[in-house]
């Protein structure tokens, strides 16, 4: 399976989406089935792309947060930063978002 960042860009192009039409991207950095982590280069390029296009990047930390991967948040493994936290306790959802304009 191709996990390169170009696959993400190709999927957007095939769907007809332009960056200025996208409000946010949500992803899990960790898939507990394997366990499998998202490729470091992919996550770093995604953060860069989101900042460049003023798109909010949200990391779903339901399976991986609270040190389950050795770091407090799984996205901490990637060297990306966050400026905003989102915790929706009532829905059982925990996510971190990266502000496109820190």
Attribute tags:
102 residues; alpha+beta; four-stranded mixed sheet; two-stranded antiparallel ribbon; 2 helices; 6 strands; globular
Task: Please describe the biggest sheet, giving its number of strands, its sense, and whether it closes into a barrel.
Answer: 4 strands, mixed
For the residues shown, what is the average pLDDT?
76
Terminal CA distance reads 34 Å
The number of distinct structural domains comes to 1
Describe it for me?
The chain has 102 residues and is of the alpha+beta class. The chain has one domain. The chain is 24% helix and 24% strand. It is built from 2 helices and 6 strands; from the N terminus they run αβββαβββ. The chain has helices at residues 5-15, 40-52, and strands spanning 24-27, 30-31, 36-37, 56-60, 84-88, 93-98. The strands form 2 sheets. It has a 4-stranded mixed β-sheet with strand order 1-4-6-5, with helices on one face. A two-stranded antiparallel ribbon has the order 2-3. The radius of gyration is 14 Å and the shape is globular. The N and C termini lie far apart (34 Å). The model is unreliable at 87-91 (pLDDT under 50).
């Amino acid at each position: 399976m191709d996990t390169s960042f170009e696959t993400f860009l190709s999927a957007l192009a095939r769907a007809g989406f332009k960056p200025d039409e996208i409000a946010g991207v949500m992803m899990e950095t960790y898939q507990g089935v394997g366990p499998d982590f998202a490729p470091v280069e992919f996550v770093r390029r995604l953060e860069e792309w989101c900042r460049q296009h003023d798109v909010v990047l949200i990391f779903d930390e339901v399976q991986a947060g609270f040190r389950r991967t050795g770091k407090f948040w799984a996205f901490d493994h990637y060297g990306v930063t966050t400026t905003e936290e989102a915790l929706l306790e009532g829905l059982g959802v925990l996510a971190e978002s990266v502000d496109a304009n820190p």
